[in-house]
């Protein structure tokens, strides 16, 4: 009897000890952001347009994220993140996906890294959105068009993702399960990035491949950030994509652009970007970004395949009203030639001016 009581007591002590470190938390977070934007040559009649839409850098979103301490430096983690249109209140997608941005669960260890499962941002999107793109992968077409080839692949369903930090080296790897009977490769994806920070310099290299019904889309990225001073950074990078799916020609087009009579079975894009961010004062930040792309073997308006060049420049000023609220203004210009004429609804150049308001909670 005494042995039984002792065993029960030991079990209760073990449970009480576990409860001291098995702490959990759930956080509601998000941001709301919208802008009013003037754009030239917005349709086939070359009319100007004034509209309300997404912010220049950050679409509106809200989410829940949580963690539970399992002991030994290991935690269970999850995230559910939604994206919506602030100006209309609608979900910001065409297929009624509630948690468009992230929906995952996993385990995280202080020493060995994090492994998560579900719908997730790709490693490429993580590094470009968080560190290596001057505009954090902007929202306006004039700021984000070099990412349109990979735009449909920035998030992956049914994926397993690993993230690890080892001193100055950060690695991310992801595999997306295709789920096709009889074929492990069809509709699957895999991608990885490796970033290394040394003093004021940080550099990244990555690769991603997506399968679409047996046809491939490949992307290579190289980027770097250098902090000249704590308040001034310069950024530069290169993206190389090859598309055999025939989807990129249409993905590059703006709304209202001419209908293409054909698509390319092997489009190749080499994109370059350069930019700088400057925290001019504690409340004023300035960003300058330039993007350039050379497309080869792309669909053209005359029904053939050819080359094209597109370039754009953007100036962004952000003024903080508080730690969570800011107003901003942006001016951008973009122009295309050759195959890129198919991507404009009117003339081959556009100028945009916008003002916006963002609140983070």
From TrEMBL:
Membrane topology: Multi-pass membrane protein
Domain (Porin) ranges: 12-338
Assembly description: Homotrimer.
Principal location listed in the UniProt entry: membrane
Protein name: Porin
PANTHER family linked to this entry: MAJOR OUTER MEMBRANE PROTEIN P.IA, PROTEIN YDDL-RELATED
Source organism (scientific name): Paraburkholderia agricolaris
Keyword Transmembrane: yes
Location within or outside the cell: Cell outer membrane
Domain of life from the UniProt record: Bacteria
Gene3D superfamilies linked to this entry: Porin (2.40.160.10)
Signal peptide as annotated in the record: 1-22
Keywords per UniProt: Cell outer membrane, Ion transport, Membrane, Porin, Signal, Transmembrane, Transmembrane beta strand, Transport
């Amino acid at each position: 009897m005494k042995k039984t009581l002792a065993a029960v007591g030991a079990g209760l002590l073990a449970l009480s000890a576990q409860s001291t470190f098995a702490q959990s938390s759930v956080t509601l977070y998000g941001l709301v952001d919208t802008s009013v934007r003037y754009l030239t040559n917005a349709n086939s009649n070359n009319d100007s347009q004034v509209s309300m839409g997404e912010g220049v850098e950050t679409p509106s979103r809200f989410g829940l994220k949580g963690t539970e301490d399992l002991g030994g430096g290991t935690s269970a983690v999850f995230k559910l993140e939604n994206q919506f249109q602030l100006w209309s209140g609608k979900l910001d997608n065409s297929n009624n996906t509630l948690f468009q941005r992230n929906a995952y669960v996993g385990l995280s260890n202080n020493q060995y890294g994090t492994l998560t499962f579900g719908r997730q941002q790709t490693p490429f999107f993580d590094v470009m959105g968080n560190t290596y793109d001057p505009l954090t992968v902007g929202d306006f077409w004039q700021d984000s068009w070099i990412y349109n080839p990979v735009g449909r692949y920035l998030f992956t369903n049914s994926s397993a993702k690993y993230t690890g930090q080892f001193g100055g080296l950060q690695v991310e790897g992801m595999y997306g399960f295709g789920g096709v009977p009889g074929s492990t490769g069809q509709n699957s994806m895999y991608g990885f990035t490796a970033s290394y920070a040394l003093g004021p310099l940080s550099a990244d290299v990555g690769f991603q491949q997506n399968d679409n019904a047996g046809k491939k889309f490949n992307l290579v990225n190289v980027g770097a950030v250098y902090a000249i001073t704590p308040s001034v950074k310069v950024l530069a990078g290169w993206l190389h994509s090859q598309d055999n799916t025939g989807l990129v020609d249409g993905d590059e087009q703006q709304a209202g652009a001419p209908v293409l009579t054909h698509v390319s079975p092997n489009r190749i894009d080499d994109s370059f970007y350069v930019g700088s961010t400057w925290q001019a004062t504690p409340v004023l930040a300035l960003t300058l970004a330039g993007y350039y792309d050379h497309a080869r073997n792309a669909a053209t308006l005359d029904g053939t395949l050819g080359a094209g060049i597109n370039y754009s420049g953007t100036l962004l000023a952000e003024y903080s009203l508080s730690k969570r609220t800011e107003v901003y203004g942006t001016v951008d210009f973009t122009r295309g030639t050759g195959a890129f004429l198919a991507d404009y609804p009117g003339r081959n150049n556009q100028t945009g001016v916008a003002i916006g308001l963002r609140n983070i909670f």
